[in-house]
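Q: For a teaching handout, I want to show students what a protein-ligand complex looks like in token form. Below are the inputs, and the small molecule is pyridoxal-5'-phosphate. Please produce the holo structure.
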Amino acid sequence: MFARLRGDFPILDARVGKSPLSYLDSGATSQKPQCVIDTFIEYFQQRNAAVHRGAHSLAVDATEAFENGRIAVAELVGGAPEQVCWTKNATEALNIVAMGIDRASRGFGGQAAERFVLGPEDSIVVTEMEHHANLVPWQQLAASTGAQLRWLPVTETGELDLSSLETIVDDSTKVLAFTHVSNVLGTINPVKRLVARAREVGAYIVLDACQSVPHMPVDFTDLDIDFAAFSAHKALGPTGLGVLWGRTELLDALPPVLTGGSMITTVTMEAAQFMPAPQRFEAGTQPVAEVAAFATAVGYLAEVGLEQIFDHERELAGILLDGIAEIPGIRVLGTAENRIGTVAFDVDGVHAHDVGQYLDGQGVAVRVGHHCAQPLHRRFGATASTRASTYLYNNAEDCQRFLTALAEVRPFFGVQ
Ligand code: PLP
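A: Here is the structure, written as tokens, with pyridoxal-5'-phosphate included.
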């Protein structure tokens, strides 16, 4: 099946100079199958209208496309469609939670929002492996409320060090925000263990699911979390669309950050009442074509099967890790057994940007730099790394082409 579905992705036929393309940068953004591209185009050709407002047929049709997207996502990650709020990307979704708590702490949102109030006696806990999108908003919240920011450290194997979990997450902890899967190390974190500790101390749990939802079966209800965020573009969908998922009673109590049209019930010259979720977080005109296209992407993922996608990528990760182990002078960052098909490494004596450029010359697309995880790189004594990340359309040949090119890097740059 995996060999066949590669043909669904037109961009994979592209050539880079004289070389065929081996795209190993899906951790940054995924490629799109033709059916997703078609839905996007067809939306504008056949369905385009303003949602939720018009009484005309096109508006009804567009609204249906928009709301069906919500149903599709709820089927993918669990919960009810009303728990799925559309955002611009995962970064915006995480900011909505952090900034909503900030607004609650400054007296917005009335009595319902009091449950979110943070102060100097409270703590927020993150991890050392967070993408900046799930770190900087919490730093901002800590700075604004006086709450203490703490973090769970990362071990040499690239796993969370939970030896001090009970002291780091304690009775002062009001928010525990962590990534499900590291975008650098590929490590899958023990969500249930972390959730159990958060529940013991009554902290809200915010899950960054950017690198899990596209690659493995994920059920937010079963994981028992409070809020989650992910981006459509990493899961075969278009750019410009993200998801904020939350428990209904929490979403309905969280003060919105963006206010204006389409999210109110009544407005006077002095004040406004807000709608419940999801509309309360969807001010202004929404990315309807993106939602329609994402629904097709979600359908595609479900048809292939996330269990199967996970196994396929694990197999590719095995090829990558075994092959890299044979090449002298390469240090893999993180060796966790429980992982997805993402492998980051450092090449002794060659800067990651030079590695990336050499690989690109051979048609192999990887990511270089700090991958928006500077503290994690600092933890491993590096400022940058090279990352190969796989997806359902990659095959063993992509991995072999990558390994052949990687073996040439140090000799090419004259490093002994
Ligand atoms: N969190 C993780 C783990 C990611 O990998 C990314 C993207 O690389 C993000 C958050 C931010 O996603 P976006 O840039 O789509 O908002």
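A: Two things your students might notice: The mean pLDDT is 97. DSSP finds 14 helices and 17 strands in the chain.
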